[in-house]
Amino acid sequence: MQRILLAEDEEVLRMLVVDTLEDEGYLIDEACDGEEAYELIRKNDYDLILLDYMMPVYTGLELIEMIRKDQIQTKIMMLSAKSQTSDQQKVLEAGADFFMSKPFSPIQLVERIEEILGEAE
Q1: Contact of 74 with 48, CB cutoff 8 Å
Q2: Residues 80-97: pLDDT tens digits?
Q3: Which CATH superfamily is domain 3-120 in?
Q4: Is the pLDDT of residue 119 over 90?
Q5: How far is CA 56 from the centre of its chain?
Q6: Within 10 Å of residue 40's Cβ, how many Cβ atoms?
Q7: What is the DSSP string of 14-30?
Q8: What is the pLDDT of residue 30?
Q9: Is the pLDDT of residue 101 over 80?
Q10: Where are the beta strands (DSSP E) in 1-121?
């Protein structure tokens, strides 16, 4: 079973994504801020990390930089309403592998994750 970390501070969105991905058979760990996400990343191995851009303690961007500095090679997808080309470029330059603009449909997210994790196999 593939394991995904979702770091999202908006509880309703986090619950929707978790429910959707669990229904698809993924094992999901949740974090509501950047600090909690970083602790989980240092303790566990993930197939994919989903990060919100704007979170308390550490932003998604700061978290990506910390993860890559620690030489953690897990694929990362940023989920963000900050969808300007310049924002997307910052995220990718920091070390994210993928970017998905909010709002998104649960179906879009599942399709993108299947595509990403299918590439990893």
Answers
A1: yes
A2: 988 788 989 999 999 999
A3: Response regulator (3.40.50.2300)
A4: no
A5: 15
A6: 16
A7: HHHHHHHHHHTT-EEEE
A8: 98
A9: yes
A10: 3-7, 27-31, 48-52, 75-80, 98-101
